[in-house]
């Protein structure tokens, strides 16, 4: 089970990398797995600190966290 959740987490990450944002409904439809597995994959990525969430009228949108530029050492 953990292996399939990890695979779905990877598919979610790639989808968001290519499409910028999505809702759970959109991810479920586009990735082609059941909503429960998508939720587990989103939880996996959220726990790793890789996702941002934005609540809008239409629902909650998920995006990849933007990378903060590393400070230069002077």
CATH class: Mainly Alpha
Fraction of helical residues: 40-55%
The secondary-structure class comes to alpha+beta
* Terminus-to-terminus distance: 47 Å
Name the beta content range: 15-25%
Order of helices and strands: HEHHEE
Mean pLDDT: 91
Query: Which residue ranges are poorly predicted, with pLDDT under 50 across at least 5 consecutive positions?
Result: none
From the 3D structure, determine the CATH topology.
Answer: Arc Repressor Mutant, subunit A
The general outline is globular
| Main beta-sheet annotation | 3 strands, antiparallel
Radius of gyration: 13 Å
Question: If classified by CATH, what would the architecture be?
Answer: Orthogonal Bundle
Physical arrangement of strands within the biggest beta sheet: 1-3-2
Number of helices: 3
Number of domains: 1
Give the CATH superfamily.
Winged helix-like DNA-binding domain superfamily/Winged helix DNA-binding domain
**Using DSSP, what is the number of strands?**
3
Give structural attributes.
74 residues; alpha+beta; Arc Repressor Mutant, subunit A; three-stranded antiparallel β-sheet; 53% helix
Protein topology:
Blueprint: H1 2-19, E1 21-22, H2 24-31, H3 35-47, E2 51-56, E3 59-64
What does this structure look like?
The protein has helices at 2-19, 24-31, 35-47, and strands spanning 21-22, 51-56, 59-64. A three-stranded antiparallel beta sheet has the order 1-3-2. It has a single domain (2-64), classed as Arc Repressor Mutant, subunit A (Orthogonal Bundle), CATH 1.10.10. It is built from three helices and three strands; from the N terminus they run αβααββ. The protein has 74 residues and is of the alpha+beta class. Helix content is 53%, strand content 19%. The radius of gyration is 13 Å and the shape is globular. A hairpin with a 2-residue loop joins strand 2 (51-56) and strand 3.
């Amino acid at each position: 089970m953990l292996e399939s959740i990890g695979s779905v987490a990877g598919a979610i990450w790639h989808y968001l990398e290519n499409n910028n944002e999505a809702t759970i409904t959109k991810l479920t439809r586009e990735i082609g797995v059941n909503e429960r597995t998508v939720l587990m994959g989103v939880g996996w990525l959220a726990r790793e600190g890789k996702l941002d969430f934005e609540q809008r009228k239409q629902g909650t949108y998920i995006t990849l966290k933007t990378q903060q530029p590393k400070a230069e050492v002077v």
